[in-house]
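In the previous chapter we treated chains in isolation. Here, by contrast, the input contains two separate entities that must be folded as one system, with a combined length of 840 residues.
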Amino acid sequence: MPLMQSWVASANAPETDFPLNNLPYGVYDLGDELLFCGVAIGDRILNLTRLEEEGLLDLETGQFFGWGTWSVFMEAGQDAWDELRAWLMVMLREGSEAETALSKFLDAQADATMHLPFDIMEYTDFYASKHHASNVGTMFRGPENALPPNWLSIPIGYNGRASSVVVSGTDVVRPNGQLKGPNDDLPRFGPCARWDFELEMGAIVGKPSDGMISVGEADDNIFGYVLLNDWSARDIQAWEYQPLGPFQAKATATSISPWIVTKAALEPFRTSTPERERPLLPYLKEPGPMLYDIDLEVTLAPESKAETVITRTNYREMYYSAAQQLAHHTTSGCPMNVGDLLGSGTISGPDKGARGALLELAWGGKEPVTLDTGETRSFIEDGDTVTLRGHAQGDGYRVGFGACTGKTLAAPTIPDWAKE
Amino acid sequence: MPLMQSWVASANAPETDFPLNNLPYGVYDLGDELLFCGVAIGDRILNLTRLEEEGLLDLETGQFFGWGTWSVFMEAGQDAWDELRAWLMVMLREGSEAETALSKFLDAQADATMHLPFDIMEYTDFYASKHHASNVGTMFRGPENALPPNWLSIPIGYNGRASSVVVSGTDVVRPNGQLKGPNDDLPRFGPCARWDFELEMGAIVGKPSDGMISVGEADDNIFGYVLLNDWSARDIQAWEYQPLGPFQAKATATSISPWIVTKAALEPFRTSTPERERPLLPYLKEPGPMLYDIDLEVTLAPESKAETVITRTNYREMYYSAAQQLAHHTTSGCPMNVGDLLGSGTISGPDKGARGALLELAWGGKEPVTLDTGETRSFIEDGDTVTLRGHAQGDGYRVGFGACTGKTLAAPTIPDWAKE
């Protein structure tokens, strides 16, 4: 599929994340209290909230955009999803008669402050890149126990903390926590010294389920995708995670990009999960290609300095797809709700420059990463801004996600009652 | 404090769970679609929704009871909590002039179907009984690694699945899942064969926090407590839980008792956590007694047969209090919300008859429990009903929780696409 031309000129530039082929959904304000639902097109946002108020957007499936969240629209289901996308395609294409009427409802992305695009119900994080699991496993448990015995059979996941999910642009405060080095007798309480990012994709559940669903049904139930940075306190995690998994190490913040890229927009970029190294149980078998070919990169910028690309990888590197993860999530009868967010797990490729976390890139601090500024990093320092970017590359156009960015601020002062 | 006499005669019986001293909060219907907020008093429920509609309950702090949930009232904060309890104490005490007016608004508990009493925002489960952790650790990892190295320093917890929380009386369907015995080469997909209960208390967060709070503040933020059964698939758990913790093994259902027993009602029963075996970090130190002396028991009844008490223990056996758990939960900056539910972890006492799960009671199947019916149980069978009960014993009265019960139904038929 080639670039689809729009009368919004900036949407036709080959390097924009938001051509007519994309049409991702976000929530924003323009400097006052009002929250708008909008669609990114080039460097503009089409304001659906105001269009609906004015009667210029009148979907047969209902009214959805007065709530400052896309959750109401997601709840409406596939017919509404299809109707809106079809309407937008007609209205925004080059030559559309709607240009004059709609151009008044275009806001500049530069003027918009983005908000979480939907109500996060529950958040689950997975562990589905074999390269990442092998790298981290080698560091935490040694090369002979790198990949857990279940890893090739189960899309390993754990429940995260939905209340900690924030939108791109939100500052992230370095956590305090219990820390204990291998040679310490007792833990102490202090600021995390091994603060890290994790490059992930987030899949958004758009249809509820109550009982076990197949991989194909799971794929149908996914509304769209975002970039996701699962900020991680490696030192807190190392001390706390046995036997019940990561807890406070992952509860400070998880940042997501502000635009939901719909599954419809990603359809041309489907690709298959890799050859299985161990046969999967039938319930995890995919009826078709369930991954997407999405180029991903991460940059790190020290305070007031230029950013350096520190990793480049691709979502197709995953061993398990989001549809497989969601299907597995339902095996126990676990009810899934509209607005559940599934983190893919850190996306690492086979090469050193394709690793999706500083822990791996700097190999636990043994091989610090050198930035273009000449500084080195083993972990994130205060003032550093980490930015995730991603896009699927079409023929002369991109379906992009925008940026998922966050600056790390110093840990809170420890109150007197918590001091030793 | 002695029994406080009420004009509701059944509230003055020494064996009732619901004397005037208690006044727990629930949500119920009477056979149609309407949900009422009510207060248990003896074998009756005072219908606050109808009282508020009729203008007979007119709190200065606001109107709260038209929503079919206690969450709106919880959000209103301490002043509202105090005002309602004071009003109820005056209105329901023996000799109150309100008897004639209010007696029309008493519903029979026998006629009521109970619902979840509040909106469960997120659910966290802890692991805070030393006896339980030692028993399970011995079975899973051997006696030399029974207690994880962090256990005496951290109130170990993990995020559970809020969507799976159900009210007492809801049938629970045995899960299917990935199973792999120690001698199997590969896992298979089938019904859980080691289905278990966990006897816990649930603490309900009633005030939000955004940043680290002390144990004292955490105690202030707890609205009340329920009984909680964290149903567990031990075989699914054993295969899936490394390295990121339990996931589908705990996602089928968590049952809670329908009545929120407020912290105010439990105040006379405060007791201290045990002597520390290793010094705690200052942020976990308690400003006063934070546990409660609550007698607990569990019964198991095979299909259409009488129940047998299979364990008797007490909440005071815990090593960590809910206030300590909540304080630890906030160390990373994790935002806590009204309606967050914290499971205490399985409550086991030091004796064999005081263990809070069948896994421990029957020692992994090696020492099956004999029921009064003559049958034995290593794990829960289809048709079995497990019931948790608990109360604090006062001088001639009880502050009780009612029952937390659930019957296990057979696992769903495995669909053709999931068969091998």
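The domain at 123-418 of chain A is CATH 3.90.850.10 (Fumarylacetoacetate hydrolase; domain 2). The mean pLDDT of chain A is 97. Compare these points with the single-chain example from earlier in the chapter.
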